[in-house]
Design a protein that fits this description.
The protein has 14 helices and 12 strands. The chain is an alpha/beta fold and 357 residues long. It has 2 domains: 223 residues, Rossmann fold (3-Layer(aba) Sandwich); 89 residues, no CATH class. Strands 6-7-8-3-9-10-12-11 form an 8-stranded mixed beta sheet, sandwiched between helices. A 4-stranded antiparallel beta sheet has the order 2-1-4-5, covered by helices on one side. β11 and β12 form a beta hairpin. The longest helix has 18 residues. 37% of the residues are buried.
C-alpha cells in the first residue's frame, strides 16, 4: 500500500464507545443498556517532529484517544494510520511488535508503571527482551545504560542496580521515559507525564522532553488538562470536550485568539505571563451547568448546556470544525463563515423557539 498522507500519524473518524452493563447477567450475555461515547468522531494528524497537545477536562476522551493510538484500546469505528499505512486492524503480539517499537507510551503514574520487585535495569531491559532486541546480554545492558543516560539518570550503572522505592518521584518518571527511549521510537504518547510531580521537577522533565525531540527527532502526542502547559510546550493544540474536538490550531493562535467559547473559557482561567493593560481587569468566563456525561450526550452542540453564548441553533444542530484561517479550526456556529456575532445570534425572535419543541 502506498502512503496516502504526509503526516506521520493520523486518526480518521475515530470513535470509541464503551457498553453500559447494568448487572452480571448483562455482562455474561454481552447485553448493553447504552454506551459511553468516550470518543465520538475525531480527526487528528501529527507531523514528524511535532508536538501536538491534546487538552481537555476529565472525561473529555483525551486519554482514550492516546490509548487507541498505542493500540491498548480498540476503536469502535475509524482508522489509525502510521506513515501512511492503516494499522487499525493490527492486534495480537506478533503483528503489533513492529508498530510498538515505533510508538511508545509514557503513563501518568510512575508508581504504578514500575514493578517494585524489579531493578531499574530490569524494567528498562524488559521491552528489549520481549522484542528480541540485542544479540547478547552485554549489548542489552549497553542500550539500557544509554537510555538511562539520555533520560538524565547518571551514572546509569548506579541507577540500573536500584529499586523503585529508592528513587524520588521525578527519578521514577525519568525511568519510565528511559523505558520508552530504549526502543528508539519515532512517536511518544505522553499521558499527563508531569501532573503528579512538583513544579520544579516538571520544568526539568519538560526541558528533557524538548531536548530529546531535538536530539532524536521525536514526535509527541502530549495529553494534558493544563492549557498553560500546552501553550509553552506544544506546536499545536487540540481542545477536546465530551469526545469531540472543539478547536485545533497553532498553539499561539489558539491561546491568543480562541474562537470556540469552551476554549475561551479555558484560556480566561489559565495563568498568563501577560498582565492586563493598566486599569483593565482580566475577565474570567466561569462555566455553569453540570459536569458533562459521555453516556448522555445532549442533542445539538454538545457544549451548549454550559455555553455562555449558546443560541437556538446550538440546541438542535451540532457544528462541524470550521476553518477560520491560519491553520486554526473551531467547532462553533459563530465561527461559520458569515455567522452573526454572539450578541446578534442570541437575539432571536420568540417564534424560533418552536424548534425546541
Amino acid at each position: 500500500m502506498s502512503p496516502i498522507s504526509d503526516d506521520l500519524l493520523r486518526v480518521e473518524g475515530l470513535q470509541v464507545h464503551f457498553p453500559i452493563r447494568g448487572s452480571v447477567l448483562d455482562a455474561l450475555l454481552r447485553r448493553s443498556r447504552g454506551v459511553v461515547r468516550a470518543v465520538d468522531g475525531i480527526d487528528l494528524s501529527i507531523r514528524k517532529g511535532e508536538i501536538l497537545a491534546l487538552v481537555g477536562e476529565s472525561g473529555s476522551g483525551k486519554t482514550t484517544t492516546g490509548r487507541v493510538v498505542v493500540k491498548l484500546t480498540r476503536q469502535t469505528k475509524g482508522r489509525v494510520l502510521f506513515e501512511g499505512q492503516d494499522v487499525s486492524a493490527l492486534w495480537g503480539t506478533r503483528p503489533l511488535r513492529a508498530y510498538r517499537r515505533k510508538v511508545q507510551l509514557i503513563f501518568q503514574d510512575p508508581y504504578e508503571t514500575l514493578n517494585p520487585k524489579h531493578t531499574i535495569g530490569e524494567f528498562v531491559a524488559e521491552p528489549l527482551e520481549v522484542h528480541g532486541i540485542g544479540r547478547s546480554r552485554a549489548e542489552r545492558r549497553d542500550r539500557v545504560h544509554a537510555a538511562l543516560e539520555a533520560a538524565g539518570l547518571r551514572p546509569a550503572a548506579d541507577y540500573a542496580a536500584r529499586y523503585p522505592h529508592e528513587l524520588s518521584g521525578g527519578q521514577r518518571q525519568r525511568v519510565v521515559i528511559a523505558g520508552a527511549l530504549v526502543m528508539d521510537p519515532e512517536v511518544i504518547v505522553a499521558d499527563e507525564p508531569v501532573s503528579m510531580l512538583d513544579v520544579s521537577i516538571r520544568t526539568e522533565l519538560l526541558r528533557l522532553m524538548l531536548d530529546l525531540r531535538r536530539e532524536r527527532g521525536l514526535t509527541y502526542l502530549f495529553i494534558t488538562h493544563d492549557l498553560s502547559l500546552a501553550w509553552v510546550l506544544a506546536d499545536r493544540i487540540a481542545v477536546m470536550y465530551l469526545g469531540r474536538i472543539m478547536e485545533i490550531g497553532p498553539a499561539e493562535t489558539v491561546i491568543r485568539a480562541p474562537r470556540n467559547p469552551y476554549t475561551q473559557a479555558l484560556v480566561s482561567v489559565s495563568p498568563s505571563p501577560d498582565p492586563p493593560e493598566p486599569g483593565v481587569s482580566s475577565t474570567r468566563v466561569i462555566l455553569s451547568g453540570e459536569t458533562p456525561d459521555a453516556a448522555h450526550v445532549p442533542s445539538g452542540c454538545r457544549f451548549h448546556p454550559r455555553c455562555p453564548v449558546a443560541f437556538d441553533r446550538c440546541r438542535v444542530e451540532e457544528p462541524p470544525l470550521f476553518d477560520v484561517g491560519g491553520g486554526q479550526q473551531a467547532a462553533c456556529w459563530l465561527a461559520e463563515p458569515g455567522a452573526p456575532t454572539a450578541e446578534a445570534a442570541t437575539r432571536r425572535p420568540a417564534a424560533s423557539t418552536a424548534l425546541l419543541g
